Amino acid sequence: MIDYPALAALAEIIRRGSFDAAASALGVTQPAISQRIKTLESRTGQVLLDRGPPVSATQAGLRLVAHFDQVRLLEQAVRTDLVSAADPATIRIAVNADSLASWAIEALPQAPGLLDLVIDDQEHAETWLRSGLVSAAITSQRGPVAGCDSHALGAMRYIACATPDFMARHFPNGVTADALGRAPAVTFNSKDGLQSGWVRSRIGRPVVFPTHLIPATEPFAQAVRLGMGWGMNPDLLIRDDLRSGRLMPLLPDAELLVPLYWQVTRIMAPALLPLTRAIRRSAQATLVQP
User: Considering just the CA atoms, what is the radius of gyration of the chain in Å?
Assistant: First the structure.
């Protein structure tokens, strides 16, 4: 039998970052929180927290919290009186940073509870679903993942772009493999394959290029605007820059379309229906539709 008060303690520790903060949130003492976690780890036979500092969850801990959140959301959907308005359920979803910065944020107020967002590349969000750590995700895989429903959202249009000065300095004789191998790029993080994928599709082979790593959407775009490098930016975020000439495509008519899908675990689909509808409406209004 799962000890749900202990799971509540585990969830609060993970979200608030300390045993003391969790105790305050739950209205109990810090020793009581510690005892709950000790008992839960003993019953499960697994370490659920890395005591740090800072305190963080193990994979097993994250899986238990995901289960706890899903149970509370299902209870809330079936009987709203089971969870008070002051203590709403938490919904964990995975979303890529570019979608969050450009179109998905408008849908999130329709979530039937508190959100715990996992920011990860659209090509890797499916992993969170497969491991049971999120209830829904925006992915680039059609799927569906086993036990999930998949909804096609449309495609994000990416433009490989740079400033005119950067283009003149690094590509005076055109965008060639040699020039790309010397010109600095901007990459979101080690999972970001957009730049290398675009180069391979245009040059016909992989090219190793120097790159800055800037793992935030707006700073990424700003780095390109400041001439630090070239990069793949969503046209939703740089349309004004392209119109004004502040940025220009590396090559004409060389956009990259990344299809996106909303995958939601089937057991949670009824409870998350308002969010699913809002995600699909926002995508329909902003993404490239087939």
Answer: 22
Q: How many structural domains comprise the chain?
A: 2
Tokens linked to 36: 């709950």
Distance from the Cα of residue 71 to its chain's centroid: 23
For the chain, how many helices (H) and strands (E)? 12, 11
The enclosing domain of 244 has a CATH number of 3.40.190.10
* Residue 163 near residue 224 (C-beta atoms within 8 A): yes
Does 216 score more than 90 pLDDT? yes
Q: How far apart are CA 131 and CA 64, in angstroms?
A: 11
Q: In whole angstroms, what is the distance from residue 113 CA to residue 101 CA?
A: 21
Question: Rounded to 5, what percent of the chain is helix, strand, coil?
Answer: 45, 20, 35
Q: Which domain holds residue 5?
A: 1-75
* Model pTM score: 0.80
pLDDT tens for each residue of 96-118: 999 999 999 999 999 999 999 99
**SS3 of residue 121 by DSSP:** coil
pLDDT digits (tens, 9 = 90+) for 227-245: 999 999 999 999 999 999 9
13, 30 contact by CB (below 8 A): no
Strand-pairing partners, residue 256, are 158
SS3 154: strand
